Amino acid sequence: MTFDVAVVLVPFIFALLISMLYRFISKKYIGWLVTAVSLVLFIILTTYIPRISNGEIITFTHEWIPSLGINFTTYLDGLSLMFSLLITGVGSLVGLYSIFYLSKSEQLYHFYCYLLLFMGAMLGVVLSDNILVLYGFWEMTSVSSFLLIAFWHHRKASRAGARKSMLITVAGGISMLAGFLMLYEMSGTLSIREIIEKAGLIRESALFVPALVLVLLGAFTKSAQFPFYIWLPDAMEAPTPVSAYLHSATMVKAGIYLVARFTPVFGNEAAWFWLVTGVGLFTLFWGSFNAVKQVDLKAMLAFSTVSQLGLIMSLLGMGSVAIYLGHSSETVIYTQAAFAAIFHLINHSTFKGALFMMVGILDHELGTRDLRRLGGLMYFMPLTFTIALIGCLSMAGLPPFNGFLSKEMFFAATLHIQDLSILSLDHIGFLIPLVAWIASVFTFVYCLIIVGKTFFGKVKTHLLDKHPHEAPVGMLISPYILIILVVGIFFFPNLLGRYVLNPAMASIFPMFPSAEELAPTIHAWHGFFSPELWMTILAVVAGIFLYSLLKSWKPIYRILPYHLSLNALFNNGILWSESLSARFTRRYMTGNLTDYFVYIFVAFLLVVGGYFLYGDVFSWSPVNPESLDVFEAILMVIIMVSSIGILFAKSRITIVFLTSVLGYSVAFFFIVFRAPDLALTQLVVESVSTVLFLLCFRHLPEIKRGVQSKWKEARNLVISLAMGATVTMAGLAALHYEKFKTISEYYNDSYLLAGGKNIVNTILGDFRAFDTMLEVVVLFIAGLGVYTLIKLKAKGGGQNEN
Amino acid sequence: MRINDVILRTVVKVVILIILTLGVYLFFSGHHAPGGGFIGGLVLASGIILLFVTYDIETIQRKMPFDFKKVAALGVFIAAGTGLGAIYFDLPFLSHTDGHFKFPFIGDKHLTTVTLFEAGVALTVIGTLVTMILSISEDE
């Protein structure tokens, strides 16, 4: 087993250890433990950089369910390595930050257990080669995100946000699964590598475009693209380390990963370009436009994340044009869009992570992150101010920060695409740079708001719960490492380019011959007359202009009434589906046992009775009365008398008594027919259930006869008679059934196969041990169910929590 | 009304030994003769329930201070754990093996890993049944 498998498994192992051994780990050290785990993983992963950047690909396969072609294959190439480094790197920084952010009185074991679960799942997503395994990890990230958002589950907003994100991302995940199954149908393989090799073949299939759309739905919901982004602002109810980690740096980039990974498969389809670029661009604009109106700093950052994810998405879409056009010296230029995408992805993680941590510091030290209560903090919190300033300037795309480089490349890519005369771009192509420019104006505006309204202006100490003061050193370390990266990447971008981004490019464009020409050298200066520089300058000018006039144009946000917004639409949809399903369920779940028996019996009659009626399998010959034993006759009479007696019994005690008589008589039948196992079991079960009945019936009222309508009684009579007839028929037919061989011959060799002479037990314990094990589990759950139902009622709790 | 149950109490004192012994016997004989984890567990559980019915719950719980929920959980754990044991030997989940062993005094014995699995089944049956009966009877 190589290290790359261990990388996926280690977080899970530690999550398990924490959940089992938390009593023995002090709360003080658990955060350090998690930080150390992610840091060690990060360091292990960095040792792979030289091998991967030489074009090597490291795979490991464990055959998991070979009969279904499901293998646990890890696949470490440039793209996977880049994401893995991001996950573990940001993971260790967030772990360190969270030690100081979370109070020791919180349920830290839960928190770090979920965090490790998430880390493992996310590593699984980016390292899996098998699409079904990938899907499993994908959903696991949704679940762990749900748990982390709802970490403060006593708050209503946390629960609502968690549910919303779960619903949207899991719905997307399921559509992605459908897309994956279509891919399997077309290519006959579950391996991403093999699917990429067969990209030309599956292009012809009628399922190609549906699969494309379904896979994109998964990516768009996860990466918070329009119109699915609405879960991300609500997910900000999570503790800030979680927002920094899951909802800006890693999980929301799973969708980006998916698009990048499947670009070689779908990139040659025009719909891919249009969907990815179009949705991405609109999300970019919509996110930045809506960020401006937010008053909660975290919500503003959430919308900014939505917008930046749109930017990355649109760049990947533009990059796919290179595949659409095929490889030539002219088309290589379009791959630079994809390069800008992954470059910006890293940059975004650095500055947005720092900004989230900055907001976390404000929240932690001041007790609020509401812009209306903040102001003038520069003098109180100079170190935090530095983080905000550098983070925001980088996000706005100004030098000397890494955001400038990738933003310039983004502008350049939009300008290149505009020149393209295919894909009917010649008519609306000019829109692409225009939208990009407008969005970056708004981006500049909200960056100014974050810095200006928080750190400049008047101090509003009367609105603050605590006196403003600088954060403890521990909370500053992680954001400072990130902003050092923000500056460092600006000055040495090609170091990152050569070792991390170039190999990743080779994974996005595997059919292009050399990675060298795919990856441009990153320049900060493109000359004074380069259009992208002027786009930046104009965006800055327009941004300052809009910021100074903010009050006069803010009313445009009120044009769209709330009941037309996406959130209202979503909420109404949920309410409507809830009431519809409640109404539907109430129609058949009456709470009346008789009704449920009717369903069961009718289903039985339809299946078994229908089979006997239409299958023409019923055959029997009368039993020779001579062979009837006198014991059997007596037992039959007892059974008949007691079962008819039950029908006319007045009290429950009599019914219990008669049922026991029935049961014991059947046990005696088993003895007569020499089935000691069955007889023993039947006797004991009968005894125990009699005790149980007697215990329960104490609580029940007297039986009331004749309360049901005549029609219902008649219906029940017919069903009962038919049921009896069917069972009798089945019993008689079983004697002479010849449609298929009995399975009992297989078990004759039980001693050879399972080392036991008792066939019944070898079946239970060996041949069908899996059934038995699950039955044991079911029995246990049922027992716990009975226990909890009674105990909860006894405490007077258990009422509907709402 | 105080029920005079001297006869019941006296009889149970003798019979319970037989029942519990039968339960253990059935459990071990299961591999080659009628019996097994499920029946053994059932018989043992019914013996315990008989004790509860004859004496009161408090008396018996003083003598048998088990949390029967935990007994059931242990049973599930053992049953699943024996299955996982097979994976350690690179065999499919829940594979079992058996062998003959020579012991001093009692001679040749046929031992199987199925017995461990069955022990899990038996414990679950006992734990669940007693939990159910106890919680229903304690409910007022």
Brief digest:
The complex is a heterodimer of chains A (802) and B (140). Chain A has 802 residues and is mostly helical. Chain B has one domain.
Order of the strands making up the biggest sheet of chain B: 1-2
Give the structural class of chain A: mainly alpha
Main pleated sheet of chain A: 2 strands, antiparallel
Strand order of the largest sheet of chain A: 1-2
Low-confidence stretches of chain B: none
State the helix count of chain A. Answer: 35
Oligomer: heterodimer
Q: Average pLDDT across residues of chain A?
A: 86
Let me know the largest β-sheet of chain B. 2 strands, antiparallel
Structural class by helix and strand composition of chain B: mainly alpha
Approximate shape of chain A: elongated
Classify the beta-strand content of chain B into a percent band. Answer: 5-15%
Instruction: Tell me the Rg of chain A in angstroms.
Output: 34 Å
Number of strands of chain A: 2
Specify the helix fraction band of chain A.
Answer: over 70%
SSE string of chain B: HHHHEEH
The radius of gyration over CA of chain B amounts to 18 Å
